[in-house]
Design brief:
57% helix
């Protein structure tokens, strides 16, 4: 985190009035990256499992829900991103949650590389993400209701 902050401190103008001009002239990707670093520097989801309603970091889940963060929009369970990095039991769990129990049966006894390859195909496009990337459903529904403008 400190490295990212140092890079941004060196990249942006030190003078506050020049900063706003810099932000207005910057492309959206740079502004998004700067915003991500600023939020990350001040937000602490803690070490608890923020997907649990009783987790000590539930505020992080609320922020994710209110911001409309949807991991399924940008993350896919590929071999490189997940399946080659986890044990076979978690690959089976992913297929079970994303596709169903019947889809897991053919994976039994497969070598890990073959299991990961098959799972990648099965999970492609179904929207499955690991539990730690999920925004709790109750919070997502609550956030959606909160974000809707009131009927006139």
């Amino acid at each position: 985190m400190a490295t990212h902050l140092d890079r941004w401190r060196a990249a942006i103008p030190a003078e506050p009035t020049a900063l706003w001009s810099w932000i207005e002239a910057a492309d959206a990707g740079a502004v998004d990256a700067l915003l991500a670093v600023c939020v990350a520097a001040g937000a602490d989801a803690g070490g608890a499992d923020w997907t649990l309603p009783d987790g000590t970091a539930e505020p992080a889940a609320r922020v994710a829900a209110l911001a409309g963060l949807d991991s399924t929009a940008w993350w896919r369970p590929t071999r490189a991103s997940y399946l080659d990095r986890v044990p076979k039991a978690l690959i089976a769990e992913a297929v079970r949650e994303g596709v169903g129990e019947e889809a897991v049966k053919p994976l039994a006894g497969a070598r890990k590389a073959d299991m990961a390859e098959t799972a990648a195909g099965l999970l492609d496009g179904v929207g499955w993400v690991p539990r730690l990337l999920r925004v709790p459903a109750a919070l997502a529904v609550e956030a959606a209701a909160t974000a809707r403008p009131a009927a006139e």
